[in-house]
Design brief:
- By secondary structure, this protein is α/β, with parallel strands linked by helices.
- It folds into 2 domains: 202 residues, Glycogen Phosphorylase B (Rossmann fold, 3-Layer(aba) Sandwich); 172 residues, Glycogen Phosphorylase B (Rossmann fold).
- It is 38% helix and 14% strand.
- The protein contains 13 helices and 13 strands.
- Strands 3-2-1-4-5-6-7 form a 7-stranded parallel beta sheet, with helices on both faces. The protein has a 6-stranded parallel beta sheet with strand order 10-9-8-11-12-13, sandwiched between helices.
Protein backbone atom coordinates (compact mmCIF):
# COMPACT_ATOMS: atom_id res chain seq x y z
CA UNK A 1 0.00 0.00 0.00
CA UNK A 2 1.20 3.51 -0.80
CA UNK A 3 1.22 6.36 1.68
CA UNK A 4 -1.75 7.92 -0.12
CA UNK A 5 -3.79 4.76 0.33
CA UNK A 6 -2.77 4.54 4.01
CA UNK A 7 -3.70 8.15 4.88
CA UNK A 8 -6.68 8.76 2.65
CA UNK A 9 -8.47 7.77 -0.55
CA UNK A 10 -6.26 6.92 -3.52
CA UNK A 11 -5.46 9.66 -6.03
CA UNK A 12 -6.79 8.49 -9.38
CA UNK A 13 -6.02 9.92 -12.83
CA UNK A 14 -8.72 8.91 -15.31
CA UNK A 15 -7.69 9.14 -18.99
CA UNK A 16 -10.71 10.54 -20.85
CA UNK A 17 -9.23 11.28 -24.28
CA UNK A 18 -12.26 9.50 -25.79
CA UNK A 19 -14.34 12.53 -24.81
CA UNK A 20 -12.24 14.65 -27.22
CA UNK A 21 -13.35 12.54 -30.18
CA UNK A 22 -15.80 13.97 -32.71
CA UNK A 23 -17.95 10.86 -32.11
CA UNK A 24 -17.21 9.60 -28.56
CA UNK A 25 -19.62 6.70 -29.10
CA UNK A 26 -20.43 4.07 -26.50
CA UNK A 27 -17.06 4.47 -24.78
CA UNK A 28 -17.80 8.15 -24.32
CA UNK A 29 -21.19 7.34 -22.82
CA UNK A 30 -19.57 4.79 -20.52
CA UNK A 31 -16.99 7.37 -19.42
CA UNK A 32 -19.61 9.98 -18.57
CA UNK A 33 -21.71 7.36 -16.82
CA UNK A 34 -18.74 6.25 -14.73
CA UNK A 35 -17.94 9.83 -13.71
CA UNK A 36 -21.58 10.39 -12.81
CA UNK A 37 -21.59 7.22 -10.73
CA UNK A 38 -18.43 8.31 -8.93
CA UNK A 39 -20.09 11.63 -8.13
CA UNK A 40 -23.06 9.78 -6.62
CA UNK A 41 -20.71 7.67 -4.52
CA UNK A 42 -18.97 10.84 -3.35
CA UNK A 43 -22.29 12.38 -2.33
CA UNK A 44 -22.88 9.28 -0.21
CA UNK A 45 -19.50 9.58 1.52
CA UNK A 46 -17.66 6.96 -0.55
CA UNK A 47 -15.58 9.18 -2.81
CA UNK A 48 -12.08 9.11 -4.22
CA UNK A 49 -9.76 11.86 -5.45
CA UNK A 50 -10.23 11.81 -9.25
CA UNK A 51 -8.55 14.02 -11.88
CA UNK A 52 -8.97 13.81 -15.65
CA UNK A 53 -6.21 13.50 -18.27
CA UNK A 54 -6.75 14.53 -21.90
CA UNK A 55 -5.20 16.44 -24.79
CA UNK A 56 -5.19 20.21 -24.88
CA UNK A 57 -8.40 22.22 -25.00
CA UNK A 58 -9.77 22.43 -28.57
CA UNK A 59 -8.90 25.85 -29.97
CA UNK A 60 -6.21 26.38 -27.35
CA UNK A 61 -3.93 28.11 -29.87
CA UNK A 62 -6.52 30.65 -30.94
CA UNK A 63 -6.44 34.21 -29.69
CA UNK A 64 -9.40 33.59 -27.47
CA UNK A 65 -9.17 30.17 -25.84
CA UNK A 66 -12.65 28.70 -25.40
CA UNK A 67 -13.85 27.12 -22.17
CA UNK A 68 -12.90 23.46 -21.97
CA UNK A 69 -15.98 21.17 -22.23
CA UNK A 70 -14.31 18.76 -19.81
CA UNK A 71 -14.47 21.41 -17.09
CA UNK A 72 -18.21 20.78 -16.89
CA UNK A 73 -17.46 17.34 -15.45
CA UNK A 74 -16.41 19.01 -12.20
CA UNK A 75 -13.02 17.31 -11.82
CA UNK A 76 -9.47 18.74 -11.86
CA UNK A 77 -7.96 18.58 -15.35
CA UNK A 78 -4.44 17.47 -16.22
CA UNK A 79 -4.14 18.58 -19.84
CA UNK A 80 -1.35 17.92 -22.30
CA UNK A 81 0.04 20.66 -24.54
CA UNK A 82 -0.43 18.29 -27.49
CA UNK A 83 -3.55 17.93 -29.66
CA UNK A 84 -5.44 14.66 -29.49
CA UNK A 85 -4.10 12.74 -32.53
CA UNK A 86 -0.48 13.64 -31.74
CA UNK A 87 -0.89 12.84 -28.05
CA UNK A 88 -2.34 9.40 -28.78
CA UNK A 89 0.56 8.63 -31.11
CA UNK A 90 3.03 9.82 -28.49
CA UNK A 91 1.46 7.50 -25.93
CA UNK A 92 1.56 4.59 -28.39
CA UNK A 93 5.31 5.04 -28.91
CA UNK A 94 6.15 5.80 -25.28
CA UNK A 95 7.30 9.34 -26.08
CA UNK A 96 4.95 10.84 -23.49
CA UNK A 97 4.21 9.19 -20.16
CA UNK A 98 1.45 9.65 -17.60
CA UNK A 99 2.10 12.50 -15.16
CA UNK A 100 3.29 11.43 -11.71
CA UNK A 101 1.76 11.99 -8.31
CA UNK A 102 -1.14 9.56 -8.65
CA UNK A 103 -1.73 6.14 -7.11
CA UNK A 104 -3.84 4.89 -10.03
CA UNK A 105 -3.86 5.79 -13.73
CA UNK A 106 -7.07 4.41 -15.27
CA UNK A 107 -7.57 4.67 -19.04
CA UNK A 108 -11.18 4.16 -20.07
CA UNK A 109 -10.12 3.00 -23.54
CA UNK A 110 -7.08 1.49 -25.24
CA UNK A 111 -5.66 4.99 -25.80
CA UNK A 112 -3.43 5.28 -22.73
CA UNK A 113 -0.02 6.59 -21.67
CA UNK A 114 2.64 4.35 -20.15
CA UNK A 115 3.38 5.00 -16.47
CA UNK A 116 6.85 5.96 -15.33
CA UNK A 117 8.90 3.00 -14.10
CA UNK A 118 9.20 3.06 -10.34
CA UNK A 119 6.86 6.04 -10.09
CA UNK A 120 4.39 4.28 -7.82
CA UNK A 121 1.41 4.65 -10.17
CA UNK A 122 -0.56 1.47 -10.90
CA UNK A 123 -2.09 1.35 -14.41
CA UNK A 124 -5.61 0.17 -15.16
CA UNK A 125 -7.03 -0.11 -18.69
CA UNK A 126 -10.63 -0.75 -19.73
CA UNK A 127 -11.00 -3.06 -22.74
CA UNK A 128 -14.47 -2.56 -24.18
CA UNK A 129 -14.34 -5.14 -26.95
CA UNK A 130 -12.20 -7.10 -29.38
CA UNK A 131 -14.63 -6.54 -32.24
CA UNK A 132 -11.89 -5.98 -34.83
CA UNK A 133 -10.90 -9.64 -34.34
CA UNK A 134 -14.36 -11.15 -34.01
CA UNK A 135 -15.78 -9.33 -37.05
CA UNK A 136 -12.92 -8.01 -39.22
CA UNK A 137 -15.41 -6.88 -41.86
CA UNK A 138 -16.65 -4.29 -39.39
CA UNK A 139 -13.29 -2.54 -39.00
CA UNK A 140 -10.90 -0.67 -41.27
CA UNK A 141 -7.43 -2.15 -41.74
CA UNK A 142 -5.91 0.91 -40.10
CA UNK A 143 -8.31 0.75 -37.16
CA UNK A 144 -7.74 -2.96 -36.64
CA UNK A 145 -3.95 -2.49 -36.69
CA UNK A 146 -4.11 0.29 -34.09
CA UNK A 147 -6.41 -1.68 -31.78
CA UNK A 148 -4.25 -4.78 -32.08
CA UNK A 149 -1.10 -2.86 -31.14
CA UNK A 150 -2.85 -1.03 -28.30
CA UNK A 151 -4.28 -4.25 -26.89
CA UNK A 152 -0.83 -5.85 -27.05
CA UNK A 153 0.60 -2.93 -25.07
CA UNK A 154 -2.08 -3.31 -22.41
CA UNK A 155 -1.76 -7.09 -22.30
CA UNK A 156 2.02 -7.06 -22.02
CA UNK A 157 2.08 -4.35 -19.35
CA UNK A 158 1.37 -4.80 -15.64
CA UNK A 159 -2.00 -3.05 -16.00
CA UNK A 160 -5.11 -4.40 -14.34
CA UNK A 161 -7.81 -4.82 -16.99
CA UNK A 162 -11.47 -3.87 -16.67
CA UNK A 163 -14.03 -5.30 -19.10
CA UNK A 164 -17.74 -4.58 -19.38
CA UNK A 165 -18.83 -8.19 -19.91
CA UNK A 166 -17.89 -11.81 -19.32
CA UNK A 167 -17.98 -12.05 -23.11
CA UNK A 168 -14.95 -9.76 -23.45
CA UNK A 169 -13.26 -11.38 -20.42
CA UNK A 170 -13.41 -14.72 -22.24
CA UNK A 171 -11.79 -13.15 -25.31
CA UNK A 172 -8.92 -11.78 -23.19
CA UNK A 173 -8.42 -15.09 -21.40
CA UNK A 174 -8.30 -16.78 -24.79
CA UNK A 175 -5.59 -14.28 -25.72
CA UNK A 176 -3.46 -15.41 -22.80
CA UNK A 177 -4.41 -12.86 -20.13
CA UNK A 178 -4.44 -14.27 -16.60
CA UNK A 179 -7.95 -14.28 -15.15
CA UNK A 180 -6.69 -12.61 -11.96
CA UNK A 181 -5.91 -9.44 -13.93
CA UNK A 182 -9.50 -9.05 -15.18
CA UNK A 183 -12.40 -7.33 -13.43
CA UNK A 184 -15.88 -7.41 -15.00
CA UNK A 185 -17.93 -4.23 -14.47
CA UNK A 186 -21.20 -4.02 -16.38
CA UNK A 187 -22.30 -0.62 -17.65
CA UNK A 188 -25.26 1.31 -16.27
CA UNK A 189 -28.59 2.33 -17.73
CA UNK A 190 -29.45 5.62 -15.99
CA UNK A 191 -27.45 8.19 -17.95
CA UNK A 192 -29.99 9.79 -20.28
CA UNK A 193 -31.67 13.02 -19.12
CA UNK A 194 -35.46 13.32 -18.79
CA UNK A 195 -37.18 13.18 -22.16
CA UNK A 196 -38.00 16.31 -24.13
CA UNK A 197 -41.54 15.69 -25.43
CA UNK A 198 -41.73 18.94 -27.41
CA UNK A 199 -38.35 18.37 -29.06
CA UNK A 200 -39.29 14.77 -29.83
CA UNK A 201 -42.58 15.84 -31.41
CA UNK A 202 -40.78 18.48 -33.47
CA UNK A 203 -38.22 15.98 -34.77
CA UNK A 204 -40.80 13.34 -35.64
CA UNK A 205 -42.92 16.00 -37.34
CA UNK A 206 -39.96 17.15 -39.43
CA UNK A 207 -39.36 13.53 -40.46
CA UNK A 208 -42.99 12.96 -41.37
CA UNK A 209 -43.39 10.23 -38.71
CA UNK A 210 -46.86 9.98 -37.19
CA UNK A 211 -47.96 7.39 -34.64
CA UNK A 212 -45.94 4.29 -33.78
CA UNK A 213 -42.55 3.43 -35.24
CA UNK A 214 -39.67 0.98 -34.95
CA UNK A 215 -36.43 2.51 -33.64
CA UNK A 216 -32.74 1.68 -33.90
CA UNK A 217 -29.78 3.70 -32.62
CA UNK A 218 -26.06 3.55 -33.43
CA UNK A 219 -23.21 5.02 -35.43
CA UNK A 220 -23.61 4.23 -39.13
CA UNK A 221 -20.78 1.78 -39.75
CA UNK A 222 -20.57 -1.83 -40.99
CA UNK A 223 -20.47 -3.42 -37.52
CA UNK A 224 -23.91 -1.98 -36.71
CA UNK A 225 -25.42 -4.12 -39.49
CA UNK A 226 -27.90 -1.53 -40.74
CA UNK A 227 -28.08 -3.01 -44.25
CA UNK A 228 -29.37 -6.39 -43.01
CA UNK A 229 -31.74 -4.65 -40.60
CA UNK A 230 -33.24 -2.66 -43.47
CA UNK A 231 -33.68 -5.88 -45.50
CA UNK A 232 -35.39 -7.54 -42.52
CA UNK A 233 -37.65 -4.54 -42.03
CA UNK A 234 -38.63 -4.69 -45.72
CA UNK A 235 -39.72 -8.30 -45.26
CA UNK A 236 -41.52 -7.75 -41.96
CA UNK A 237 -43.36 -4.52 -42.82
CA UNK A 238 -46.16 -6.11 -44.92
CA UNK A 239 -47.18 -8.13 -41.82
CA UNK A 240 -47.62 -4.99 -39.70
CA UNK A 241 -51.25 -3.87 -39.32
CA UNK A 242 -50.06 -0.35 -40.14
CA UNK A 243 -47.15 0.87 -42.25
CA UNK A 244 -44.99 1.71 -39.23
CA UNK A 245 -41.66 3.28 -40.27
CA UNK A 246 -38.14 2.32 -39.19
CA UNK A 247 -36.43 5.36 -37.64
CA UNK A 248 -32.62 5.17 -37.67
CA UNK A 249 -30.82 7.48 -35.21
CA UNK A 250 -27.07 8.01 -35.02
CA UNK A 251 -24.08 9.90 -36.38
CA UNK A 252 -22.46 9.06 -39.69
CA UNK A 253 -19.44 6.79 -39.45
CA UNK A 254 -18.05 5.03 -42.51
CA UNK A 255 -18.74 2.30 -45.04
CA UNK A 256 -21.69 1.19 -47.20
CA UNK A 257 -24.22 1.33 -44.34
CA UNK A 258 -24.24 5.10 -44.76
CA UNK A 259 -26.47 4.54 -47.80
CA UNK A 260 -28.43 1.48 -46.63
CA UNK A 261 -32.16 1.86 -47.14
CA UNK A 262 -32.18 5.55 -48.03
CA UNK A 263 -34.29 4.73 -51.10
CA UNK A 264 -36.58 2.28 -49.26
CA UNK A 265 -40.15 3.15 -48.34
CA UNK A 266 -40.61 3.54 -44.60
CA UNK A 267 -36.92 3.91 -43.73
CA UNK A 268 -36.27 7.27 -42.06
CA UNK A 269 -32.83 8.60 -41.13
CA UNK A 270 -32.88 11.05 -38.23
CA UNK A 271 -29.13 11.59 -37.82
CA UNK A 272 -27.62 12.38 -34.44
CA UNK A 273 -30.07 13.81 -31.90
CA UNK A 274 -29.94 15.55 -28.53
CA UNK A 275 -29.89 13.18 -25.53
CA UNK A 276 -33.24 14.44 -24.20
CA UNK A 277 -34.82 13.93 -27.63
CA UNK A 278 -33.28 10.46 -27.79
CA UNK A 279 -34.92 9.66 -24.44
CA UNK A 280 -38.20 10.81 -25.95
CA UNK A 281 -37.76 8.64 -29.03
CA UNK A 282 -37.16 5.57 -26.87
CA UNK A 283 -40.35 6.37 -24.95
CA UNK A 284 -42.42 6.93 -28.10
CA UNK A 285 -41.17 3.93 -30.11
CA UNK A 286 -43.36 0.86 -30.37
CA UNK A 287 -40.25 -1.34 -30.27
CA UNK A 288 -36.48 -1.05 -30.41
CA UNK A 289 -34.15 -3.19 -32.53
CA UNK A 290 -30.37 -3.48 -32.18
CA UNK A 291 -28.59 -6.09 -34.30
CA UNK A 292 -24.84 -5.28 -34.55
CA UNK A 293 -22.51 -8.06 -35.64
CA UNK A 294 -20.82 -7.93 -32.25
CA UNK A 295 -20.49 -5.65 -29.21
CA UNK A 296 -18.33 -5.50 -26.13
CA UNK A 297 -21.38 -4.34 -24.19
CA UNK A 298 -24.06 -2.31 -26.01
CA UNK A 299 -25.82 0.50 -24.11
CA UNK A 300 -28.77 1.33 -26.43
CA UNK A 301 -30.88 -1.76 -25.50
CA UNK A 302 -30.61 -0.79 -21.83
CA UNK A 303 -31.65 2.76 -22.70
CA UNK A 304 -34.71 1.40 -24.51
CA UNK A 305 -35.64 -0.96 -21.66
CA UNK A 306 -35.43 1.93 -19.21
CA UNK A 307 -37.99 3.74 -21.35
CA UNK A 308 -40.34 0.73 -21.16
CA UNK A 309 -39.83 -0.28 -24.79
CA UNK A 310 -39.60 -3.96 -25.83
CA UNK A 311 -36.34 -4.93 -27.55
CA UNK A 312 -34.98 -7.15 -30.33
CA UNK A 313 -31.25 -7.69 -29.96
CA UNK A 314 -28.46 -9.61 -31.69
CA UNK A 315 -26.83 -12.56 -29.96
CA UNK A 316 -23.48 -10.85 -29.33
CA UNK A 317 -24.75 -7.88 -27.31
CA UNK A 318 -23.69 -8.74 -23.74
CA UNK A 319 -25.54 -5.90 -22.07
CA UNK A 320 -28.52 -8.18 -22.69
CA UNK A 321 -27.05 -11.61 -23.53
CA UNK A 322 -23.81 -12.24 -21.63
CA UNK A 323 -22.15 -15.60 -21.02
CA UNK A 324 -23.59 -17.99 -18.41
CA UNK A 325 -26.65 -15.86 -17.61
CA UNK A 326 -29.12 -18.01 -15.59
CA UNK A 327 -32.34 -16.20 -16.52
CA UNK A 328 -34.13 -15.95 -19.88
CA UNK A 329 -32.96 -12.88 -21.82
CA UNK A 330 -35.11 -9.74 -21.48
CA UNK A 331 -35.32 -9.37 -25.27
CA UNK A 332 -35.97 -11.34 -28.45
CA UNK A 333 -32.51 -12.59 -29.48
CA UNK A 334 -31.62 -13.04 -33.16
CA UNK A 335 -28.74 -14.05 -35.40
CA UNK A 336 -27.48 -10.76 -36.90
CA UNK A 337 -26.45 -12.54 -40.12
CA UNK A 338 -29.91 -14.10 -40.66
CA UNK A 339 -32.28 -11.60 -42.28
CA UNK A 340 -35.26 -13.96 -41.94
CA UNK A 341 -34.59 -14.43 -38.23
CA UNK A 342 -34.49 -10.66 -37.71
CA UNK A 343 -37.64 -10.17 -39.80
CA UNK A 344 -39.54 -12.79 -37.79
CA UNK A 345 -38.57 -11.13 -34.51
CA UNK A 346 -39.63 -7.72 -35.85
CA UNK A 347 -43.03 -9.09 -36.83
CA UNK A 348 -43.52 -10.62 -33.39
CA UNK A 349 -42.41 -7.61 -31.36
CA UNK A 350 -44.50 -5.18 -33.39
CA UNK A 351 -47.70 -7.26 -33.40
CA UNK A 352 -47.84 -9.68 -30.43
CA UNK A 353 -49.09 -7.78 -27.38
CA UNK A 354 -48.47 -10.65 -24.96
CA UNK A 355 -44.84 -10.94 -26.00
CA UNK A 356 -44.44 -7.18 -25.85
CA UNK A 357 -45.81 -6.99 -22.30
CA UNK A 358 -43.59 -9.85 -21.13
CA UNK A 359 -40.46 -8.28 -22.64
CA UNK A 360 -41.26 -4.89 -21.13
CA UNK A 361 -41.57 -6.44 -17.65
CA UNK A 362 -38.36 -8.44 -18.00
CA UNK A 363 -36.60 -5.41 -19.43
CA UNK A 364 -37.52 -3.31 -16.41
CA UNK A 365 -36.09 -5.89 -14.00
CA UNK A 366 -32.93 -6.00 -16.10
CA UNK A 367 -32.21 -2.27 -16.35
CA UNK A 368 -32.87 -1.80 -12.65
CA UNK A 369 -29.92 -4.11 -11.95
CA UNK A 370 -27.55 -1.88 -13.97
CA UNK A 371 -26.82 1.56 -12.45
CA UNK A 372 -23.87 3.93 -12.79
CA UNK A 373 -23.67 4.25 -9.01
CA UNK A 374 -22.87 0.53 -8.86
CA UNK A 375 -20.33 1.01 -11.66
CA UNK A 376 -18.66 3.79 -9.66
CA UNK A 377 -18.69 1.71 -6.49
CA UNK A 378 -17.03 -1.25 -8.24
CA UNK A 379 -14.31 1.00 -9.68
CA UNK A 380 -13.62 2.52 -6.26
CA UNK A 381 -13.32 -0.96 -4.78
CA UNK A 382 -10.86 -1.98 -7.51
CA UNK A 383 -8.75 1.17 -7.15
CA UNK A 384 -8.50 0.76 -3.40
CA UNK A 385 -7.41 -2.85 -3.78
CA UNK A 386 -4.58 -1.78 -6.14
CA UNK A 387 -3.35 1.35 -4.34
Amino acid sequence: MTAAADWGPPRVLVVVEQLRRAVPGGIGTFTRGLLGGLAQCGDEGDGVDVSLLASRTPGALSRRTPADPLARLGRPLALSRLPGPLLTRAWDHGWVRAPGGYDIMHAVSLAFPPCRAGGGTRPVVTVHDMAWRRRPEGATARGAAWHEAALRRARDSDAALVVTSKFVAADLIGDGVDVDRITVVHGGSDHLPPQDPAGTDALLGSLGVEGDFLLTVGTLEPRKNIARLVQAYDRARPAFPERWPLVIVGPEGWGPDLLAGRDREGVVYAGEVDAAVLAGLYRRARAFVYVPLTEGYGLPPLEAMRAGTPVVVANEVPSVVDLDEPDPPPALVVDPFDVEDIAGALTTIMTDDAVRADLTARGEAHWRSRTWRDVGRQHIRLWRSLA
